[in-house]
Amino acid sequence: MLVSDKIYALLCAFFSVIIIVGNLVYQKFVALPLFPFHTFELSAGAVLYPLTFLITDLITEFYGKERANFCVKIAMTMNIFVAVIIIFIDHLTATSWSKIDNATFHNVFGLFSIAFLGSVLAFYIAQRVDIIVYSWIRRLTQDRFLWVRSNGSTALSLLIDTSIVISLLAFFKILPVDRLGPLIMNSYSYKLFFTLLSTPLFYVSVMLIRHRLNGESKT
């Protein structure tokens, strides 16, 4: 297997894991006091979610839109597979000695099917927008200003994703409707802040991947 194929497979694996785990833990909301004067309140599933856009940007940078979209489709397929498994297990009856009874399991995972609809819809739309906008900015800037195409595409895509998923969760009464605006603002501001902080990570990742690919081409 070529080094380029290994890197692509690894990026897709990380991408899928973050997406799936995020959907499993989304019902826990956490407070992140990243500033003395402000505390972000958001779903635990959103904590590492901005990294998914960094990954698709890396794939688009080195492998193009088609392979980036293929990675998104793989993650979506795995998401569906995990959702089906969880729905099946949720309908099984727990034994009398099980540490996790039916009610506890259902409270944690039972709403996964509803959240899944909003999550997959938001995820797919936002990721496709990110890939398209990233490629467009790259052509517009003639391969210059790496941080512009990465942060610009991610900033727009995260706003779309956050608005869709939280609005749908509020519509299904999984989240309180009166918290809709604050939750969107808190979640998006955190994701945007995280994205800006991860800019050096994006540059380092590009440098490392480029070094490995260049080393492969010389062998």
From TrEMBL:
GO terms for molecular function: transmembrane transporter activity. Keywords: Cell inner membrane, Cell membrane, Membrane, Transmembrane, Transmembrane helix, Transport. It comes from the Bacteria. It is found in: Cell inner membrane. One of its GO terms (cellular component) is plasma membrane. Pfam families: Vut_1 (PF02592). It is a multi-pass membrane protein. Its main location: membrane. InterPro entries: YhhQ. The chain crosses the membrane at residues 7-26, 46-63, 70-89, 109-126, 146-172, 192-209. PANTHER family: QUEUOSINE PRECURSOR TRANSPORTER-RELATED (PTHR34300). Involved in the import of queuosine (Q) precursors, required for Q precursor salvage. Belongs to the vitamin uptake transporter (VUT/ECF) (TC 2.A.88) family. Q precursor transporter subfamily. NCBIfam families: queuosine precursor transporter (TIGR00697). HAMAP family: Q_prec_transport. This is Probable queuosine precursor transporter.
